[in-house]
Amino acid sequence: MSDLPAYREPVAQDTARHKHTVPATPARALLPVILPALAVGVLASLLLLLVEGAAEQLEDVLWQDLPDALGVGRYSVFWMMVVLTGTGVLVGLVVWKVPGHAGPEPATMGLDARVLPPGVLPGLLLATALMLAGGPSLGPENPIIAVNVGLAVWLGGRLLPRAPGPLWVVLAEAATIGALFGTPVAAALLISEALAGRQSEGPLWDNVFAPLVAASAGSMTITLVAHPTFDLDLPALGTPGWGDMLAAVVVASVGALLAMCAVRAFPYVHRAFGWLRHPMLALPAGGVVLGLLGALGGHLTLFKGLDEVGELAADPDGWTAGQFATMTVVKLTALLVAASCGFRGGRIFPAVFVGSALGLTAHALVSGVHPSVGVAAGVLGVLLAITRQGWVSLFVAAVLVASASVIALLCIASLPAWLLVTGRPQMQLREDGTSVR
Fold this sequence. Notes:
Layout: H1 27-30, H2 34-70, H3 77-97, H4 121-134, H5 141-159, H6 165-181, H7 184-196, H8 204-226, H9 242-274, H10 279-297, H11 306-314, H12 321-341, H13 348-365, H14 371-387, H15 390-401, H16 405-421
């Protein structure tokens, strides 16, 4: 493994050293990373499938078998309060008592996971599975990436001790992102965006070669086993017109502004739950608030939101503008609360629901707003504010409607939306509770 590329953090270098083109990495240095990348990709996707499969089984018990046996409505106000509060209690117990306390404060975690010791990972997996099954508005991405990174570094360091440590980090991150989105494109875009923000050694494709192998293996494993799809099967968009461009710009900008309200409120809501000073107080309290929000917005505002978006998209005219708007605000508030009170989870998938509901609100208010344009632009604006990842936001928004003609509209709409969010606080906190910028 001595020919493995370094994969070290690039450092600032003197301008004079960059007057000459950095030579490309020879093929003999890239070939040894293929097998490790394939192995990480397959294992990372299988772990994701295992956690989501276990969570789905528990979800069926909590939201179907138990209420049916007790003779209560599956999504009655009473049952939503019971399950969400109970989920807060169970996750609170894991954070309190399980070794490792289910990892670091989730509000400080993003897609760029830190390396956690192996003893922390079982508790983090358990807390994530309980959260996914119980209904809080968070997705699996952040904790699953963290677990896969920890496992890859731990196992890789033992099986291939001569390989550089950062290699396993980037492979695990790329593999998990490829598995989460069912395509390596999202991982390639995310890595390319990260490399653009710093000076990297060698051509771009040399740097993304190994991560792309891992992401491809992860996405193909998920595709072959689970057959996921992000296409919402919305009405097809023909040749876009001036009205479509205007709608995309307005909806994306509104989405960015709306999501920035939650971003601005994030440190204050997090601080409010922090005043409770114990996971057995903060998490059950968060569960109570989420139960009340579920009662207000309906059962579609529960869970990570991807399946629920499919239900909305299956009947874009099935709800009034007021109902769509209510679901938009409730889901965004639920995302804010769940991310603030200590539940382990990511923010991308519920943000997709928020953007989709916002786009359908625009369609219900103005019939001339094509549902595909509204949904794609809404998701774009909300994701730009929540994630601050431009390429990933464009990719997710475009893949939801599976229409080539919408891509140009989204590129145009991303420009004013980006101006609204760049340089402002992100939905991630530092250890001292202040917002990352």
